[in-house]
Write the structure tokens for this entry.
Amino acid sequence: MYLAVNAIINPGEEVIIPEPSFVSYGPEVVMAGGVPVYVPTYAENDFQVTGEEVRQAITEKTKAILIGYPNNPTGAVMSRERLAEIASAAAEHDLLVISDEIYDRLVYGVEHTCFASLPAMRERTILLGGFSKSYAMTGWRIGYACAPPEILAAMRKIHQYTIMSAPTPAQYAALTALDEGETYVADMRAEYDRRRQLIVSGLNELGLTTFEPRGAFYAFPSIAATGMDEHTFAEKLLEEERVAVIPGSAFGPSGAGFVRCAYATAYEKIEEALERMYRFMQRHG
Ligand SMILES: Cc1ncc(COP(=O)(O)O)c(C=O)c1O
């Protein structure tokens, strides 16, 4: 991500970022000398940014739009229709689109549309992906980018003098994942889907209204019913029941009143967490 923004941003140029979104997007734009311009997304719109909302944020300094879907932390998956709106805004204003699709394989009951596959978008898209999520290889840090050659050349320059190369053992692990991992991806997706259904129905039953996430491995419940802010909720839940969730506002101001629950852990642990949250809600709901 940093390589991508650094390769394209001149000092003071703006990058539009729908939020809530992955914590490092904004800081990486800042580190590259750019200015993040955040656009809120809402549960009522399935946390999908609209073309109109993006257009309203465009100024003469805008260089790129940075989207991440399936989304961390909301689990939202951008529909083809919404993506087409963004594509048309990008074409009209001659903008680049950085599309972080690292969760592209983890979608449930919907199809993932690759932004670069939309008409005429290949030449203005920097597609980011990685092995962490599809192959449950978090921590191995093998990612990849697909972009027009001149952008990749600029990224390689920075890569060469900051990172040099991904560690060799991690590259071999990724190769094995590619060669032998396909059936595991399908199995894991089915297992994540099972956990997703458990956590989403469990949270809703507790009175924590939860938008149905269609991708990634996060649920993003509203904690409005408790009357607490998201920081108090997360801290009390951790202290009283030893269940860890992340305050939604860590991912942007529109995450206020929500928390992020990761369901990448075992089914039984999610059951246990829901039981503990039930006790918590009995006291605080
Ligand atoms: C949306 C998103 N993009 C990128 C990453 C980075 O993944 P990695 O550094 O493991 O390749 C993460 C990891 O949490 C993520 O959630």
